[in-house]
Design a protein that fits this description.
The protein is globular, with a radius of gyration of 30 Å. Strand 7 (146-150), helix 5 and strand 8 (169-173) form a beta-alpha-beta unit. Helix 9 packs across helix 13. Residues 1-7, 476-491 and 736-743 have low confidence and may be disordered. Helices cover 41% and strands 20% of the residues. It has 5 domains: 1-37 and 52-88, no CATH class; 89-245, Rossmann fold; 251-457, Rossmann fold; 477-582 and 664-732, 3-Layer(aba) Sandwich (Rossmann fold), CATH 3.40.50.1000; 585-660, Trehalose-6-phosphate phosphatase related protein, domain 2 (Alpha-Beta Plaits, 2-Layer Sandwich). Bound molecules: adenosine-5'-diphosphate-glucose (ADQ). Adenosine-5'-diphosphate-glucose is lined by residues 36-39, 175-176, 247, 285-287, 320, 322, 362-363, 368, 385-390, 393.
């Protein structure tokens, strides 16, 4: 097959320290090496399908021989689909940037292993220099559009790229945990690292806890505008959106490999080779890395065999550990693991049986699935872990559904994977007992738990993860590149959009007609806006659309002849006459009970306001201290988890909304109003909040949307409630103009 010199380029750029393919000299030949690890294979799949460029450090001994003058080579070597652009780093730069700052400062810091943090000044200067090289390599690319950085090696590159090319869309995924502030403040460059990362438009973490931790650190360290509920940080005039995207695996590929005939044969061979016939099998698969908790796992196994002598000879644990970062402290860690394996085997082993089989070797995935499939217990004992893909690989490969997953609650995967037996790896007693429980579990329970795990891993696989991030990345440049046009600058264009047609006006209340105040009970309609509404009412149909309850809303505005839409669209009235009220009686009892529990859970958090609006409810936290937000979210979520069948949670400006499932949102209400007003009238919606986005989206192609403050879903933008007043004045037309006339 002919190899295209320049694979098709989508403009997507992936940047990571590690490259997907390395070329190594082997005598006269050049070998292609594909490094182990979840990140590289996942991203390789992305670029194979989209085309584009991968920028990475060229560390292979034959890497320079294989590239063109620009450092580029087409990959995969056997079927080129995208370009790999290699960055060259001298040995001492690698030593100080990679082995130094990345692996001896950021890695242990983010895994809260503070006593392992070792810092030298030269680490930081090398880290900055290496990041500069990666940034320059991106800036060299003529076709770059969206850039996706990976991980903790590249904290500074995003801000460097943004400075030179503010037009590019930048995202970064942080594969490891983000620690809380009490740990992060130990970072000698706490501020610089955060500033570098805030060069991104989108910053992804594995789980919401890491998003919260990151926001906390920014709040403590930088003068930045922080929005917890929308997960946005504005720093230096640029806004970064933060999201949790739990990474996953190609579940179908693992299942297929596990089902293959060769796997069945390999399982039989392995059983014979290791004397596993008639014995239960435990399995661990890890990089030989201190954060994976191998010592804690071996201690738990030691205790298990000590306490339950009946397991001796009946249960064998296999540890597959691929050596990683062959330097200190890894060499000492490896020695400690090997010594402990030896001790357990000496204490409990017998001539015909070895309790722990230890393999310090890389096993290809197509062989690894045989171990995953035949294991009765898969053990993941991370001290702290971003996600842990082994847990997911084990579940996907368990095609007979006999195995039980024992999973550290410190791994991001524990947030997601329901069906695993969770352990605290520091609690050796509890850990040992959990392994025993797994070994004794009845087949029906094993099957049920494994089915649940497989469902989750199957539904949330790597393709979905990639799709989610790419979708958000391409729409990530939110506020400063906003498509909404400031009305003040584009005066003509609103009139052009209306095009002389009669208008039906819909206005949100809080933050649109009435300025946001700390206590929502104090939100008043300004006299100027009241006068304008009275005039507009004569010229066009006007609806006030709000999340507030209907009575509350009518009481605050008190103008006859307007339409009132309350509870986000669940109730619509014309004056006193109810036009539509969705039946929420069934959910009402549950709502009362739920709110009582929410109030109880939030006791002791000063400033929180729980508002019962009848059909829906709101929890306002505008007056809550930032440091109380995390417990607030945690307790709120804890209560609402039990009601997830009945209620759905949406968030607005410093407010969490509890809404019965199936109730209308503002989008549905707006479409209902538009239909009522007829095709000839152009619906015009003005709103400021996340819940208004439903209305903006509903009106796409059918009407006109105006956002108070930037929002990519709206057609136009106005500044603050003053901007709304100006807009209402324009809609009234010149003073004394004829009622009913088009503005
Ligand atoms: P890692 O710390 O590398 O990644 P992990 O998620 O456990 O951790 O992935 C390890 C990968 O290496 C798996 O695909 C596994 O199959 C493979 N592997 C492990 N031992 C092996 C062996 N002996 N032979 C062959 N392959 C082996 C970082 C974060 C994680 C996060 C990933 C992805 O630390 O928390 O899940 O990135 O974001």
């Amino acid at each position: 097959m002919e190899t295209p010199a320049h694979p098709p380029d989508s403009g997507l750029v992936v940047v990571s320290n590690r490259q997907p393919y390395a070329h190594r000299r082997d005598g006269n030949a050049v070998r292609v090496e594909v490094p182990a690890g979840g990140l590289t294979s996942a991203m390789d799949q992305v670029l194979r399908s989209t085309g584009g460029t991968w920028v990475a450090w060229g560390h292979g001994s034959a890497d320079r021989e294989m590239v063109d003058a620009g450092g580029c080579v087409a990959v995969p070597p056997d079927q080129p689909r995208y370009t790999l652009k290699r960055v060259w780093l001298e040995e001492d730069l690698v030593e100080n940037y990679y082995h130094g700052y990345a692996n001896q400062v950021l890695w242990p810091l983010c895994h809260t292993a503070l006593d392992r943090v070792y810092y030298r000044k030269r680490f930081w200067s090398a880290y900055a220099a290496a990041n500069r090289r990666f940034a320059d390599a991106v800036l060299d690319l003529s076709r770059a559009g969206a850039v996706w950085f990976h991980d903790y090696h590249l904290c500074l590159a995003p801000a460097m790229v943004r400075k030179a090319r503010p037009d590019l869309r930048l995202a970064q995924f942080w594969h490891i945990p983000w620690p809380d502030w009490s740990v992060y403040r130990a970072c000698p460059q706490a501020r610089e690292v955060l500033e570098g990362l805030l060069g991104n438009d989108l910053l992804g973490f594995q789980v919401p806890l890491f998003v919260h931790n990151f926001i906390d650190c920014v709040r403590e360290c930088l003068q930045a505008k922080v929005d917890y509920i929308r997960s946005r940080i504005t720093f230096g005039g640029h806004t970064t959106r933060l999201e949790a995207y739990p990474i996953s695996i190609d579940a179908a590929a693992f299942r297929r490999m596990a089902e293959a005939e060769r796997t069945v044969k390999l399982m039989a061979r392995l059983r014979r080779r290791w004397g596993l016939e008639g014995r239960q099998i435990g399995l661990g698969v890890d990089r030989l890395e201190y954060t994976k908790g191998l010592l804690k796992r071996l201690q738990a196994l030691d205790l298990l065999f000590e306490r339950y002598a009946s397991l001796r000879g009946r249960f064998t644990y296999i540890q597959i550990a691929v050596p990683t970062r062959l330097k200190e402290p890894y060499l000492s860690y490896r020695a400690a693991v090997e010594a402990l394996v030896e001790r357990v085997n000496r204490r409990h082993g017998r001539p015909d049986w070895t309790p722990v089989i230890f393999m310090d070797t890389k096993v290809e995935h197509r062989d690894l699935v045989a171990y995953y499939r035949m294991a009765d217990v898969g053990i993941v004992s991370s001290m702290y872990d971003g996600m842990n893909l082994v847990a997911k690989e084990f579940a996907a490969s368990q095609v007979d559904r006999r195995g039980v997953l024992v999973l550290s609650e410190m791994a991001g995967a524990a947030d997601e994977l329901e069906g695993a037996l969770l352990v605290n790896p520091y609690d050796t007693e509890g850990f040992a007992e959990t392994i025993r429980r797994a070994l004794r579990m009845e087949p029906a329970e094993r099957r049920e738990r494994m089915e649940s795990l497989q469902r989750q891993v199957g539904e949330h696989d790597i393709h979905r993860w990639i799709g989610d991030i790419l979708t958000d990345l391409t729409g990530a440049a939110l506020p400063d590149a906003g498509r909404g046009l400031p009305l003040s600058k584009e005066r003509g264009s609103l009139e052009a959009a209306i095009g002389g047609r009669p208008v039906g006006l819909m206005l949100d209340y809080d933050g649109t007609l009435s300025p946001i105040v700390r206590d929502p009970a104090q939100a008043r309609l300004p006299a100027g806006n009241r006068a304008l509404l009275l005039r507009l009412r004569e010229r066009m149909p006007v609806a006030i659309v709000s999340g507030r309850g209907l009575d509350d809303l009518r009481g605050r505005i008190g103008i006859d002849g307007l339409l009132y839409v309350g509870n986000h669209g669940a109730e619509i009235a014309e004056g006193d006459r109810i036009l539509l009220r969705q039946d929420h009686a069934a959910a009402r009892a549950a709502m009362e009970e739920c709110l009582e529990r929410v109030r109880e859970a939030l006791l002791g958090i000063p400033g929180v306001i729980v508002e019962d609006k009848g059909g829906t409810a709101s929890v306002h936290y505008r007056m809550v201290r930032p440091r109380d937000l995390e417990p607030l979210f945690a307790r709120f979520t804890h209560v609402l988890e039990e009601y997830e069948e009945i209620f759905r949670i949406t968030s607005g400006k410093k407010v969490l909304e509890i809404r019965p499932k199936g109730l209308w949102d503002k989008g549905r209400a707006v479409l209902w109003l538009a239909r009522r007003w007829g095709r000839d009238r152009v619906p015009l919606y003005v709103g400021d909040d996340v819940t208004d986005v439903d209305a903006f989206r509903a009106l796409k192609g059918r009407g006109i949307s105006v956002s108070v403050g930037p929002c990519p879903d709206a057609d136009f933008t106005v500044e603050g409630t003053a901007g709304v007043t100006a807009l209402l004045r324009r809609l009234c037309g010149p003073a004394g103009s004829r009622p009913g006339a088009t503005p």
